[in-house]
Specification:
The complex is a heterodimer of chains A (about 675) and B (about 160).
Chain A (H helix, E strand, L loop, with lengths): L7 H23 L8 H23 L6 H7 L3 H65 L6 H25 L4 H27 L5 H94 L3 E6 L4 E4 L1 H7 L3 H4 L13 H13 L12 E4 L5 E13 L2 E10 L1 H60 L5 H32 L5 E3 L1 H11 L9 E4 L5 E3 L1 H18 L7 E7 L7 E8 L31 H11 L3 E6 L5 E8 L16
Parallel strand pairs in A: 7-9
Antiparallel strand pairs in A: 1-2, 1-5, 3-4, 4-5, 6-8, 9-10, 10-12, 11-12
Helix pairs in contact in A: 1-11, 4-5, 4-7, 5-6, 6-7, 11-12, 12-15, 13-14, 14-15
Chain B lengths: L6 E4 L3 H13 L6 E4 L2 H8 L15 E4 L8 H10 L8 E5 L4 H10 L3 E4 L4 H18 L10 H6 L6
Parallel strand pairs in B: 1-2, 1-3, 3-4, 4-5
Helix pairs in contact in B: 1-5, 2-3
The chains are: A alpha+beta (about 675), B alpha/beta (about 160).
Chain lengths: ~675, ~160
Amino acid sequence: MESVNTSGPAAAGAQRYESKFVGGLATPRTFPGPSPPSIPAKERELTDCCRHLAIFRRNRSRLVPRASVFDGLRRVNPSLQHKTTAAFAIAVLVLLLFALAAGWNARRFDDTLDWVEHTHDVLGHLDRVSGGLIGLQSVALEIPLAEDRDLMMSRLEQATSALEHTLTSLRRIVADNDIQGARLAELEAASREASRQLEEVILQLRGGSARARVWAATSGPVERAHTLVSEMQATERQLLSERGRRARQAAHRALGASLVACALATAFLIARALMVRRDLRERQRTEAALRKSQLMFKRLFDQAPDAVIQVDTGGRIVRANQKAEQLFGWNVRELDGQRLEQLLPQRYHARHAGHLAAYFAAPRKREMGAGLELFGRKKDNSEFPLDIMLSPIETDEGLQALAIIRDVSERKANEEKIRHLNLDLQLQNARLEIANKELESFSYSVSHDLRAPLRHIDGFASLLSKHAGASLDEKGRRFLAVISDSARRMGRLIDDLLTFSRMGRAQLEPGEIDHDQLVAAVIRESGLDRDRRIVWEIEPLPRVQADPAMLRQVWFNLIENAAKYSARSEPPRIRIGSLPPTPATAELVFFVRDNGVGFDMKYAAKLFGVFQRLHSEAEFEGTGIGLANVRRIITRHGGRTWAEGRVGEGATFYFALPLDPAPTPNSTSPFPKP
Amino acid sequence: MSQLRPILLAEDNPYDVELVLTAFEQARLLNEVVVAGDGEEALDYLYRRGKFAERLWIAPAVVLLDLKMPRVDGREVLRQIREDPDLHRTPVVVLTSSREERDLYQSYDLGANAYVVKPVGFEDFVSAVAKLGVFWAVLNEPAPPGPPQRRDDALNPSQAS
């Protein structure tokens, strides 16, 4: 026992435990008991004990923390995970939608901008058309002044081709707009008409007279062309403003969508950050709980009152606690990595390997003391009885088992002791019962056999007296009388003793007792009421629950005693009364007092003994059984008896009955309690 | 006086036998007293076997039965008498030293006609036995011999016809 290493109260307890164990083992060997305990009885008892102990352990083992902590840490909430994923997907989808909206709007903005540019282009062309028309007009204005017809013609051609050119390019870009196209066609027609008329004018007319004609020739179509250009310009400007508005709208939408997307992204980021922070805190808490739980486990493991050994599937010791060290005498470091068999006696090794394999094949919690008588082996090879509880644990290294081992030497010793004590008790009971039976048969045979010789003594003494009485002298006749007298007296003694014995055995049959009536009846039946000398002082007496026949015997004995011992007083006084119950005693006290010869209080203890007498037979006749009967009857009712007296001044005999009569078992002893 | 029935005294103690005989003598009872030393002999007389096989047999006026006897005790004798269809009406008086309750109960339960405790005092003893003898041998009218009556049929189903 390496008790040097140990410290703390657990170790102290263990040492006490050990010393007790040594003392406990020695006890059964020195146990005094003549009869060896019967095996079946012992086994039955042991089974019961084991069952009870198993229940006890089952209840307690519920308090032992197990792998549940780790399970809890590993366990994830699947629904929560799904929810998180769904939320994430939705967030991404929403973001994507807004981004798409922004992109689409940006493209629309872009398109609209193209159209605006296009409109500006059209407007530019229209300006140039307008310019071309003015060119035509200026040619027209010059015609009347012109000298050179050819020059004019060329200038007209020049202006007309420029206008045509512009109109052609305009046609290209207004092809998309039917209204503008129609106007353009009209415009082209008007300008061609103007050109043709101008050409005619140039070919036909000269001099100042031509001016009015020219003006007249050209003003109509040109004016018309101008009007058309203006209309087209107005349309294009309207389009421009329309397209500008649309472009702004698209730009606003794109911006709005982008802003919302940004806001959402930010919110999402914040939410995620919060979640991460919460997760971190949760994890910190969990880790703290884990650390605590690990610490608790370690403490429990190290300071458990039982030896705890962690074993892997191969039966190797992974670790062991202090108590294991104390219990087996091996250092913890020595134990690490050892095989578990090291701690078992050699004879169990083979069986143990099988057990271990079977256990790991179907691991479940195994209770202590589950019907196996196991022994452990210490470092010094000494053995001790133990209980093992196995429970499987999941570790990082795979399935292992925790073996909780308890030295049950003391318990075994105690059980042994208890078994012996129980057996002893049973034995004593049996002996008592035997003694009782023997006494019963003794009194039976007394009744049968002892009386016969007495009858013969008296009988034949009487016959002798008849047969030879005449030839005997006075002395001889007296001898015969003494023989007969003694025989008869012995007969009375035997009868009294048998009565007394019967008082102890007979079943109590309680009923309500009217003491006033009972006492009166007893006095009448004893014939004492005819004794005129006796002065009776009888108080009213309370009723009580008791066996009427036995109480009658009590009153008879006490009253007869009082009358007998006061017979020589002048006059004899007998007082019968009772004392009220007090809360402390809760009993009714009755008494019978006389003014007779009394007794010395130093003999008071002898009064109630069997055949104990304070007076000689010659003084007062009697066998001395009466008061013994009184005491026996009252004791059987759960009450008590006592007496007070002084020599020459009378005596008082008391008996007390409990108010609440507890049923007392039939007296097993034929003799009264001292 | 061939009509006088004998008295069967089952008593193992010779002194008691002597005292009983003395008492009968003093009471001047003329009935023959057949003494059986134990229950076995009492049954031998009742069934006319053993040493009584050759005797002239007359049903006893009364059986005075001690309870405690060697070999077959008084209870067993009483039981056999009550179970026998020919003997069951025989008057049986238990004459014993015992005043024990269980003896009283058993005797009456088995069908004893009377239970007398032998007094210790000689005078009382003589007086008691003499009165017994006079009552059962002289005053009491025994049942005439005959088959069991209807009421007994119920008690003895084996005899029912």
